[in-house]
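Subject: design request, 341 residues
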């Protein structure tokens, strides 16, 4: 009896050895798991584009790569995004360049009042600018895409139709948009977008200066019953990846990511432009929001205050050794090219 069991075990052992040695080499390596951090809440556009990117990557790599997304600042908050990705707290992160303006000088030039017409054109223009100048601020990461908001407008609790009505009013804005508000005489208050609902609620600010889809996505239309159309500037964003994690990816996976860089910018721009329309229809039709266009006389005054901003930016940054005039000229030329597409 003992002997029979011994034979049986030996047989199983041999069969197992045979199976292992003859098993085909694994078709698929270990799945790659990546974390992706984002600072605003899940329903907002930076997170909508994040979920789209995740879906495309998982589909195009046949599940070889899985992406775990962290909306709402649960892994990294707005201002900690770049360093968090460099240090490997998250593998991937989405950041708004306006929150660290000095760190992203060249790409933040897209937030000058240059009249970029919509998010799709501005997003492609931002990417063109990044590719041409390869700015120092992004050297330690792999850029997976860039995009911008739609042009900014003033959302407020009080009606604002004139410069006199804007004077001294505390309005929330960051980066290039904050410079513009200052030129118009408002009291700009800087803070990342996720802190704005509380500031509006407490009355620390009487409005904000950003793209209009937030009227719906953050429910600002419930508090801000007025919109003043200014249609400038955009806020630039980047999605960046930890360099070591990027370098460790198989070549075919890197190709999937590279193929998505421009496509994702265009997709996000398009989503944003459509979503602004939808959000404003909702705001006007269900929330009683009133939209003001500036009178021709007012518009001339508001525009005149913008003219010196770009000239001053060129002068200041040329003095720091940047090809500032060329950067501005390139933004205008790239925008024209992308508008023709
Ligand atoms: C923005 C940031 C997070 C979520 C939705 C958003 N829509 C426009 C912005 C731009 C921005 O970062 C800002 O601070 O106005």
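Subject: RE: design request

Done. Sequence follows.
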């Amino acid at each position: 009896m003992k002997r029979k069991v011994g034979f049986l075990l030996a047989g199983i052992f041999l069969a197992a050895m045979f199976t292992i040695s003859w098993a085909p080499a694994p078709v698929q390596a270990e799945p790659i798991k990546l974390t992706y951090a984002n600072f605003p809440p899940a329903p907002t556009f930076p997170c909508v584009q994040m979920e789209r990117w995740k879906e495309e990557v998982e589909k195009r790599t046949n599940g070889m790569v899985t992406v775990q997304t962290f909306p709402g600042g649960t892994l990294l908050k707005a201002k900690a995004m770049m360093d968090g990705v460099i240090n490997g707290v998250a593998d991937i992160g989405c950041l708004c360049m306006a929150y660290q303006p000095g760190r992203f000088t060249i790409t933040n030039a897209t937030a000058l009042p240059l009249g970029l017409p919509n998010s799709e054109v501005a997003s492609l223009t931002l990417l063109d600018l990044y590719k041409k100048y390869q700015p120092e601020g992004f050297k330690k990461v792999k850029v997976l895409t860039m995009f911008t908001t739609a042009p900014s407008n003033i959302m407020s609790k009080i009606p604002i139709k004139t410069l006199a009505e804007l004077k001294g009013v505390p309005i929330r804005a960051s980066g290039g948009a904050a410079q513009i508000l200052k030129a118009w005489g408002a009291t700009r208050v800087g803070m990342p977008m996720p802190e704005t609902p509380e500031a509006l609620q407490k009355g620390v600010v009487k409005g904000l200066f950003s793209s209009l889809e937030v009227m719906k996505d953050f429910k600002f239309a419930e508090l801000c019953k007025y919109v003043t159309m200014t249609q400038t500037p955009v806020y630039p964003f980047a999605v960046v990846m930890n360099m070591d994690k990027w370098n460790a990816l198989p070549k075919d996976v890197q190709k999937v990511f590279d193929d998505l860089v421009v496509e994702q910018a265009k997709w996000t721009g398009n989503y944003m432009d459509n979503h602004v329309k939808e959000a404003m229809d909702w705001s006007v039709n269900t929330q009683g929001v009133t939209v003001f266009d500036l009178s021709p006389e007012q518009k001339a005054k508001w525009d005149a205050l913008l003219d010196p901003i770009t000239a001053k930016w060129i002068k200041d940054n040329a003095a720091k050794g940047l090809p500032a005039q060329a950067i501005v000229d390139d933004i205008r030329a790239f925008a024209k090219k992308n508008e023709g597409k």
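The mean pLDDT is 94.
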